[in-house]
Amino acid sequence: MNPIQKFSTPCVILAGGKSSRMGKNKALLPFGGCSSLAEYQYRRLQEIFESVYISTKDSSIFEFEAEFIEDDSETSAPGVAINTLFNELYAHEIFLITVDAPFVSFKTIGEILERGKEGHEAILAKTPAKKHYLIGLYKESILPRLEELLEEKNYKLSALVESSETLFVDFLDEEEFSNLNTKEEYQAALAKLPSRVK
C-alpha cells in the first residue's frame, strides 16, 4: 500500500490562547497517550501535512520537539497570530486549526483544502450551531485587509472574515468541532477516545 500523499499546504495549530475557562493552559493537558493536547494534535496532523507548526506565545512550556512559531506581540488575538504566521512562513495559504479541536477529521480537512482551489480568500468550516473562524484555510490575499484592521486595533476575526471573499463549508457533526474549553469538556473528550480519532 502506498503511503498517504500529504498536503503541501502548511498547517498551523493555534495554541496561544489564555485558557481562562479551563483554569490552566489546555494545550498542556495530557491527551490521547501524548504528553499534552498540543503534542497530540501535532503528531496527528503530521500524518496528513508535509509541514506542521505550533503558534504560541512561549515555546519553552512544551515538553516535546516541534516546529514552533512564537508570536511576541503583547496583544492576544487570532488576527495578530495570523499576520505573524504569514510573515514567518512566506506561504501563499495556511490551514489553521485550534489546539482544542482534536476531533476534526482528516476527511473534513481534505474537503476544506479541496474547496480552497475555488479562489476564495478564506475557506472555513461551518456547523448548524456556529461558524468556525479558526478551522480552515486562509490565503495571503487577506493580508492587506488584515493589516488595516490591526492598525485600527480591530482584533475581531469576524471583521476580517466578513470583509473578505469567504466560503463557509457546511458540516453537520457538531461533536467533530467541539472545543475543550472547560474541565467538563476535557473529561468528555477523554471519554470519546479513541472512537473519534481521525
UniProtKB/TrEMBL annotation:
One of its GO terms (cellular component) is cytoplasm. GTP binds at L14, A15, G16, K26, D71, D100. The keyword Membrane does not apply. Residues 11-161 form the MobA-like NTP transferase domain. It comes from the Bacteria. GO terms for biological process: bis(molybdopterin guanine dinucleotide)molybdenum biosynthetic process. The keyword GTP-binding applies. One of its GO terms (molecular function) is GTP binding. Keywords: Cytoplasm, GTP-binding, Magnesium, Metal-binding, Molybdenum cofactor biosynthesis, Nucleotide-binding, Transferase. HAMAP family: MobA. NCBIfam families: PRK00560.1. The N-terminal domain determines nucleotide recognition and specific binding, while the C-terminal domain determines the specific binding to the target protein. This is Probable molybdenum cofactor guanylyltransferase. It comes from Wolinella succinogenes (strain ATCC 29543 / DSM 1740 / CCUG 13145 / JCM 31913 / LMG 7466 / NCTC 11488 / FDC 602W).
